[in-house]
Design brief:
Helix content is 26%, strand content 9%. By secondary structure, the protein is of the alpha+beta class. The chain has a two-stranded antiparallel sheet. The longest helix is centred in the C-terminal third of the chain and has 14 residues.
């Protein structure tokens, strides 16, 4: 006899499902069919900045000026930054042409 139960949860990694609520499962083999909520909503659905920040669990900066220039002093000079980009692209298998000095 096939018994179907609908449970909600999430994947903690590609091999483990974590249920939102504890639930008794039958002994023996269990077949699991997954349905993603993400598939039920269009990927290109327009969302407001507030909706996106809520989905991603982040706060919206109230003052855009606080973001300007963040990280500007991370690299000592442009050559160091370009070397980083070259290394990054090389590690991805797409080497970039050498940058001008």
């Amino acid at each position: 006899m096939n018994e179907y139960v609908i449970l909600q949860g999430h994947l903690s990694d590609p091999r483990h499902i974590v249920l939102n609520m504890p639930a008794p499962l039958p002994a023996g083999e269990v077949e699991v069919l997954l349905r993603s909520r993400a598939q039920s909503e269009p990927f290109w659905k327009e969302r407001s900045l507030e909706e996106l920040s809520t989905e991603q669990g982040i706060r919206i900066p109230q003052d855009i000026h606080r973001l300007l220039g963040q990280g500007a002093d991370f690299w000592d000079d442009d050559r160091e930054f370009l070397a980083f980009l070259n290394d990054l692209q090389a590690s991805a298998g797409t080497p970039q042409e050498s940058s001008p000095a």
